[in-house]
């Protein structure tokens, strides 16, 4: 929705990105609260869904990487709601959750707004074509960085 709105009114791109970011953070807080307060109600549905494996992996990752994990989740093609619910389930610190969400989601939405504003319809078409590749590449780079950091710690 953000890209077509930025195409229609490029002068409002930053306003749209701000509104999208704030709305996403509010949605993320709702997911966090679901995880924290009501997970028992949705657990049977979630574990029966196609997202069960992703959810279990997210919970495990939050234990070690909280802020960085939620920040990275803001850019990935994996549904953000899975990460926000996971953050609530594990009791991620509130401030780290909000800051990670703001940086991750804001970074994604402001990047989209900037690219659309600069590149117009041509850029929008390219983004539609490559957005998943970019998201998965980011996950790959983060995984490599994680492995390098871990190996450095083992050999220090």
The pLDDT mean sits at: 84
- The outline comes out as globular
Instruction: Quote the distance from N terminus to C terminus.
Output: 48 Å
Strand content: under 5%
**Poorly predicted tracts of residues:** none
Helix-strand category:
mainly alpha
Number of domains: 1
Give keywords.
mainly alpha; 6 helices; 0% strand; globular
Explain what the structure shows.
- With 156 residues, this protein is mainly α.
- It has one domain (2-155).
- Helix content is 88%, strand content 0%.
- The longest helix has 62 residues, at 94-155.
- It is globular.
SSE layout and pairing:
Layout: H1 2-8, H2 13-37, H3 39-48, H4 52-73, H5 80-90, H6 94-155
Helix pairs in contact: 1-2, 1-6, 2-5, 2-6, 4-5, 4-6
Produce a short descriptive summary.
Helices cover 88% and strands 0% of the residues. It is built from six helices and no strands. It is globular, with a radius of gyration of 17 Å.
């Amino acid at each position: 929705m953000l890209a077509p709105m930025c195409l229609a009114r490029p002068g409002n791109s930053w306003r749209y990105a701000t509104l999208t970011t704030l709305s996403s953070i509010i949605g993320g807080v709702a997911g966090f609260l679901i995880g924290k307060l009501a997970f028992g109600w949705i657990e049977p549905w979630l574990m029966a869904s196609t997202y069960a494996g992703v959810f279990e992996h997210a919970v495990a990752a939050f234990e070690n990487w909280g802020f960085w994990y939620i920040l990275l989740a803001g850019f990935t093609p994996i549904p953000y709601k899975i990460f926000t619910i996971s953050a609530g389930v594990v009791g991620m610190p509130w401030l780290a959750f909000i800051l990670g969400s703001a940086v991750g989601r804001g970074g994604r939405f402001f990047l989209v707004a900037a690219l659309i504003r600069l590149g117009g319809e041509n850029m929008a078409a390219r983004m539609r074509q490559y957005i998943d590749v970019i998201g998965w590449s980011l996950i790959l780079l983060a995984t490599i960085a994680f492995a390098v950091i871990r190996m450095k710690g083992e050999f220090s």
